[in-house]
Automatic annotation (TrEMBL):
PROSITE patterns: HTH_LUXR_1, HTH_LUXR_2, RESPONSE_REGULATORY. Residues 152-217 form the HTH luxR-type domain. Pfam families: GerE (PF00196), Response_reg (PF00072). It comes from the Bacteria. Residues 16-134 form the Response regulatory domain. It comes from Streptomyces aureoversilis. This is Response regulator. Keywords: DNA-binding, Phosphoprotein, Transcription, Transcription regulation. InterPro entries: CheY-like_superfamily (IPR011006), NreC/VraR/RcsB-like_REC (IPR058245), Sig_transdc_resp-reg_C-effctor (IPR016032), Sig_transdc_resp-reg_receiver (IPR001789), Tscrpt_reg_LuxR_C (IPR000792), WalR-like (IPR039420). The modification 4-aspartylphosphate is found at residue 68. SMART domains: HTH_LUXR (SM00421), REC (SM00448).
Length: 222
């Protein structure tokens, strides 16, 4: 969905941005910021991932989706990123969030996000990241890049995005049946993921898995 190339001297079209965040006040603030950026314009807003997908299906054509991660009861940012990047000719997805745990960063990057910024980034950094994402470049905030590098060097167990998601639901106290319903997968699949999680973390119980996940920064305290 990237804008067409223009011959030298032609007027460059602005980068089109779709803003996805569950807080209306935050969305308004992001839209105001985006509209003030040079060569960038907001073309829509969504309160969660499902609404963003509906807008894309209805014909909204952004070059970049500014995506929050945790969005209340709605579809969260990682799942939305995974679905958006699986579309034909998808827009770039640039994560803009307050969350910077290893699990969040890895899940977003593995889902296909081209960039990961924190919401305290100055507007000029957001502007540069939006333009870079529209060009297909990878953009990571310095703290995020440092965490990824540290994780690679630490040798911590690498859970898949789905395994990380299930571990997080365990920490929320959900039983296998509740997890299967939440994720629309079978209980047998949940059990298989748990076996893999336990093996990677070197534990043999739900409680130990949660403790290991919290200690390793794979999940956040509930």
């Amino acid at each position: 969905m990237s804008g067409p190339a223009h011959p030298e001297g032609a007027v460059r079209e602005p980068v089109r941005v779709l803003i996805v965040d569950d807080h209306p006040v935050v969305r308004r603030g992001l839209r105001a910021m985006v509209d003030e950026l040079p060569d960038v314009e907001a073309v829509g807003e969504a309160g969660d991932g499902a609404e963003a997908l509906r807008l894309l299906d209805a014909g909204t054509r952004p070059d970049v989706v500014l995506m929050d991660l945790q969005m209340g009861a709605g579809m969260h940012g990682v799942e939305a990123t995974r679905r958006i990047t699986a579309l034909p000719d998808p827009p770039a997805v640039l994560i803009l969030t307050t969350y910077s745990t290893d699990a969040d960063i890895l899940a977003a990057v593995e889902a296909g996000a081209t960039g990961y910024l924190l919401k305290d980034a100055p507007p000029e950094d957001v502007a540069a990241a939006v333009q870079a994402s529209a060009r297909g470049e990878t953009v990571l905030a310095p703290p995020v890049a440092a965490r990824l590098l540290g994780r690679v060097r630490s040798g911590r167990p690498a859970l898949s995005p789905r395994e990380t998601e299930i571990l997080g639901l365990l920490a929320e106290g959900l039983a296998n049946k509740q997890i299967s319903r939440r994720l629309f997968i079978s209980e047998a699949t949940v059990k298989t993921h748990l076996v893999h999680i336990y093996g990677k973390l070197g534990v043999d119980s739900r409680t130990a898995a949660i403790a290991a996940g919290l200690a390793g920064g794979l999940i956040r305290p509930v």
